[in-house]
């Protein structure tokens, strides 16, 4: 059977694949994994998904999901091709030994660089997930940011964010709590600004993209850095602002 006819494990663009892992560029609107066993929504990998094992039974064999991105977030998503490798990869994430970098367009100007520390709590009820900052408690969420560009008249900034921790909706909530709402965020965002950016720039979705993942390869131990290019719709928004993606 030729490679063109081989069973697919994903319809997402593949950024890296070897005997042990596969890394894809997940489009916005695609789930990292189905929310229920009977879900018919499009997921990053093919086949039935075992919620307990965090594993897809794809036509080309089993695929173990290592981490996840929100449905509205695009970018680098990693999976393992055997259970032993999955355990090693998940350990790296648990030990914060993986560098996760995101590009996002935010309201205002947070300054050239900095660190955001907060205590976040997440509530799940009636199928909805919401995260909030709790004041007066020790931080459990941390990220570093660097401003790549600022548009003075539109009052928006392009940030490169490195996640130190991995909480649900972390970037969106930490940014919005400082009035630096992510553009296109329909949950925690600045809705008037979202409408303006949709009209002026054609931004129709959340501007949050996981653009780089860096870690030690679970088999070789060599440094591996994988980048996901921005989708055309987000690139066009930056172009209209005169900004250049990294």
TrEMBL record:
Residue ranges annotated for the Pseudouridine synthase RsuA/RluA-like domain, each copy included: 21-176
Gene3D superfamilies membership: Pseudouridine synthase (3.30.2350.10)
Superkingdom assignment: Bacteria
Signal peptide: none
CDD domains registered for this protein in UniProt: PseudoU_synth_RluA_like
Any matching Pfam family: PseudoU_synth_2
Record-stated family: Belongs to the pseudouridine synthase RluA family.
Protein name: tRNA pseudouridine(65) synthase TruC
